[in-house]
Amino acid sequence: VASIAIAGAGPVAQSLGWLLSRSGYPVQAVASRSRERAEQGAAFIGTAPVGYEDIGRLSLPTIIAVTDAALPAVAARLASATGAPAVAVHTCGVHGPDVLQPLADKGWSVGVMHPLQTIPTPEHGTRSLPGAAFGIGGATDAVAFASALVGAVGGRAINVRPDAFPLYHAAAVVAGNGIFALVEAASAMMAEAGVEPDEVRSVLEPLARTSLTNAFGPDGDHRLTGPVARGDTATVGAHMAALITRDGRAVTVEQTGERALLYAALTSWLLRIARRRGLAATSTESIAALVRIPSHGGTP
Ligand SMILES: NC(=O)c1ccc[n+]([C@@H]2O[C@H](COP(=O)([O-])OP(=O)(O)OC[C@H]3O[C@@H](n4cnc5c(N)ncnc54)[C@H](OP(=O)(O)O)[C@@H]3O)[C@@H](O)[C@H]2O)c1
């Protein structure tokens, strides 16, 4: 039986702790900044609430799942109290292992174990972490520890270059939060086109859901439809003209430029898919020319 400790008592700490304590990794203690949160997290997992320094003193293999900004300070608090060195992994996606340097300085093997999933509540996490991917990286023992934990919760460990966590995390934000941004932008444009504002989301949902399914389908490239896939330059031109004008007049970037920039950026990624499918070079180039920003703010 390999006991572990957890610093942090938010949704990630609680859901990971709950899953691990039921899969061969009993959680000996959970710490938080406030006593109340530590008690709440401990009750959810079924363990003892302690303070950060206690986690350092335990010198157990440790998961650190605190707010990103608090990571250096929490690592320093653990390090200040540590006895024998152990292993620690944090769950933040944007930082590499280096953010745990105070522990590395005390001989700990440090790394990252970032769940590539959205975890708004502990209950969500207990359901969504099995089957999720986890970005891992760091020193050898830390990576071995992270891989074992990921395997225990039924996740999938993927290696990330230790210096590339900001890029890896930006990709995660594009695929996750980016969906929210796309729905927000499309909803605003639909409402401006006259669709009832309280209907736009339900109008867009079947289209968005089918597209998501198709994009991840085995032949995703070939399920792409629409003007870029067809090489329909005239339609892309009409879209750009609509996006950079309002009431027949050119608008500035500050007014609605974000939507033209968004459309242009999406189009250039769609062109990559269309080229892979064999779109003619002339069509590719004429569409690319249409979305070469910025033409907005000047003559439409
Ligand atoms: N939630 C997600 O969807 C998700 C997904 C993947 C990765 N992550 C990452 O996992 C980590 C934990 O995220 P989370 O959403 O579970 O919880 P969180 O809200 O980011 O962090 C909560 C924990 O951090 C502690 N904390 C906050 N400020 C502190 C400070 N100044 N000093 C010491 N402790 C402090 C809190 O203590 P008190 O409450 O007692 O003040 C609490 O234990 C973060 O790095 C996050 O980026 C989150």
What does this structure look like?
The protein has 14 helices and ten strands. The protein has an eight-stranded mixed beta sheet, sandwiched between helices. A two-stranded antiparallel ribbon has the order 9-10. Mean pLDDT is 94; it is low at 295-300. The termini are far apart. By secondary structure, the protein is an alpha/beta fold. It is elongated and about 70 Å long. It binds NADP nicotinamide-adenine-dinucleotide phosphate (NAP). NADP nicotinamide-adenine-dinucleotide phosphate is lined by residues 8-13, 32-34, 37, 65-68, 70, 73-74, 91-93, 114-115, 118-119.
Offer a concise description of the structure.
The protein has helices at 11-21, 35-45, 52-58, 71-81, 101-104, 122-128, 140-152, 165-175, 177-192, 200-215, 227-230, 233-243, 253-276, 281-290, and strands spanning 4-7, 27-31, 48-50, 62-64, 87-90, 109-115, 133-138, 156-159, 245-246, 249-250. With 300 residues, it is an alpha/beta fold.
Oligomer: single chain
Give the uncertain stretches in residue-range form. Answer: 295-300
Spatial shape: elongated
Estimate the mean pLDDT confidence.
Answer: 94
Q: Tell me how many strands there are.
A: 10
What distance lies between the first and last C-alpha atoms, to the nearest angstrom?
Answer: 68 Å
Largest sheet: 8 strands, mixed
How many H/I helical runs?
14
Percent of residues in helices comes to 40-55%
Give me the side-by-side strand order of the main sheet: 3-2-1-4-5-6-7-8
Radius of gyration: 24 Å
Secondary-structure element sequence?
Answer: EHEHEHEHEHEHEHEHHHHHEEHH
> What percentage of amino acids are in beta strands?
5-15%
| Unique ligands | NADP nicotinamide-adenine-dinucleotide phosphate
Structural class: alpha/beta
